[in-house]
Amino acid sequence: MILRAAVMAMCAVNVAGMGLVLGGIAGWSTLAHLFLTQASVGFIMGNATALAQGAVPGRAGAGSAVLGLIQFLLGGLVSPLTGIAGEHSAVPMAVSMAACSVLAVAAAAAGSRLSRPKC
Q1: How far is the CA of 97 from the CAs of 1, 3, 7, 45, 92, in angstroms?
Q2: Between 2-22 and 28-55, two packed helices, what is the crossing angle to 10 degrees?
Q3: Mean per-residue pLDDT of the chain
Q4: How far separated are the first and last CA of the chain, in Å rounded?
Q5: Mean per-residue pLDDT for 19-29?
Q6: Please, which residues have CB within 8 angstroms of residue 115's CB and are 6 or more apart in sequence?
Q7: Would you tell me how many other CB atoms lie within 10 Å of the CB of residue 4?
Q8: Cβ atoms within 10 A of the Cβ of 101, count?
Q9: Which of 17, 78, 84, 95 has its CA 20 to 30 A from that of 11?
Q10: Is the pLDDT of residue 119 over 70?
């Protein structure tokens, strides 16, 4: 419940932030956008890690290794894209944050469907 709400909040904040940046509104709104995104990440990372570790209790080390691999792989793939327009534009950052948030919502929806017990 907390994880789903935090992912949805992060997605809404990032899509709104992308709209503000694309609309040319930057400055304090971008700072608020980044603050709210990081606040939601605090809720997401702990809960997602606990749920993932709980899914493989006998292999906690392997589960942790897979989580770390995925985090570093996605970070390595997305980070060059955020600076593609140079240091004077926040558009690539906002677009990549919104795209990753939409993917996170899709992953959370798929994960919740897969984890439901079958009657």
Answers
A1: 22, 18, 12, 16, 8
A2: 150
A3: 88
A4: 21
A5: 89
A6: 55
A7: 15
A8: 23
A9: 84
A10: no
Domain ranges of the chain: 2-115
pLDDT at 117: 61
**Residue 102 structure tokens:** 């939409």
Token couple for 24: 């040319």
Q: What is the 3-state secondary structure (H, E, C) of the chain?
A: CHHHHHHHHHHHHHHHHHHHHHCCCCCHHHHHHHHHHHHHHHHHHHHHHHHHHHHCHHHHHHHHHHHHHHHHHHHHHHHHHHCCCCCCCCHHHHHHHHHHHHHHHHHHHHHHHHHCCCC
| CA gap 90, 16 in Å, rounded | 14
How is residue 42 written in tokens?
Answer: 């605090």
What is the phi/psi pair of residue 11, to 5°?
-65, -45
Query: Tell me: the pLDDT tens digits for 38-91?
Result: 999 989 998 888 888 888 888 888 888 998 999 999 999 998 888 887 788 889
Q: What is the C-alpha to C-alpha distance for residues 106 and 100, in angstroms, rounded to an integer?
A: 10
9, two tokens: 């909040």
